[in-house]
Amino acid sequence: MDIKKLDFKSIYFDLYELNTGIYAAISAEKLPSSNAGFFDLGNHLIIFDTIMDPYATEDLIKASKLFTKKDPSFLINSHYHWDHLFGNRKFPIEIPIISCSETLSMYNKNFEDTLKRFRGIATQELKRIKEEVEKETNSDKILEMNNDIKTYNEILEPNFKLRSPDFIINDSIIIEGTENKVQIIYIGDAHTPGDMIAYFEKEKIVFMGDLLFEETDPNWATTSDPAPVPANPQRLCDTLINYMEKDIDIYIPGHGKISSKKILQENVEFFEKHFINK
Ligand SMILES: [Zn+2]
After folding, report:
1. Centre of ligand 1 from the C-alpha of residue 135, in Å
2. Exposure pattern of 49-72 as b/e (b: 16+ CB <10 Å)?
3. CA Rg, the chain, in Å?
4. 54-68 and 139-156 helices cross at what angle (nearest 10)?
5. Residue 112 C-alpha to ligand 1 middle, in angstroms?
6. pTM of the entire structure?
7. What are the helix and strand counts (H, E) for the chain?
8. CATH class of domain segment(s) 4-101+165-276
9. Which residues, chain by chain, have CB under 5 Å from ion ligand 1?
10. Percent of the chain beyond pLDDT 90?
11. How far is the CA of 55 from the centre of ligand 1 (A)?
């Protein structure tokens, strides 16, 4: 089946059906926003990652309902970075959030600092966005900015809470649905201390999380921002090579457009040059 771009209006992402029941939400903006997916397995709807913006996550939930006529059975967090789990709190508490234990422990370790960082810039950002929204005429941009204002105000509330993963698995699992089957593969430390990816062997599709970026940036080698610096560059490259050699046609990166083997090759060369043979 050819990739189908679906008719769904979101200011945050474009929605694609990659194969029957396998959907990818590809962020309209490359960074800091991220990609996500949802999988209709027949008897289960599985969401793979949320999106940085909580309103983008609301659109993701809306799209998943519209196209699958189902409520989610599980949410999976590929890794602990906030741009992939900031939308967790949009899911009802009875829906399990699956991750590996490293994701949960890194989340717990970094939660207070990350929240403090966001709160630290919130007042200044609120001022900037409010000034910009006054001048803006594009209705989509105005909506996005007003949503950002709500998000920063929410972050500033003293009892602001995210939902952490609560269904912890340190191995690969297979979810055998009545229509589709997905392998949730535990990679271990690569991009972060614990990464998971979603693999559809028959359909030749893999959701790589942040093990794959459509575009890389040499500045990552010298940045003080730890997010793009791999926890284990060797395992990251080995994993990319392993998945490049498999019979796979469609690679969904954590950030950027739908990718091919060529992008994996570029990522391997980039991480080897800047983080292994530096
Ligand atoms: Zn990440």
Report:
1. 33
2. bbbbbbbbbbbbbebbeebbebeb
3. 18
4. 110
5. 18
6. 0.94
7. 6, 13
8. alpha beta
9. 81, 210
10. 86
11. 19
Q: How far is the CA of 223 from the centre of ligand 1 (A)?
A: 15
CA distance 183 to 175: 6
Tokens 């490359």, residue? Answer: 30
Domain edges within the chain: 4-101+165-276, 103-156
Give the distance (Å) from ligand 1 centre to CA of residue 216: 13
Distance from the alpha carbon of residue 131 to the mean position of ligand 1, in angstroms: 31
Cα gap 90→59, rounded to integer Å: 11
CA of 77 to the centre of ligand 1 (A): 11
Residue 139 alpha carbon to ligand 1 centre in Å: 30
For residue 223, pLDDT over 90 is answered with no
Calculate how far, in angstroms, residue 253's C-alpha sits from the geometric centre of ligand 1.
11
52 or 263: which leads in pLDDT:
263
Cα–Cα distance list, 112 to 89, 120, 252, 260, 277 (Å): 16, 12, 30, 37, 34
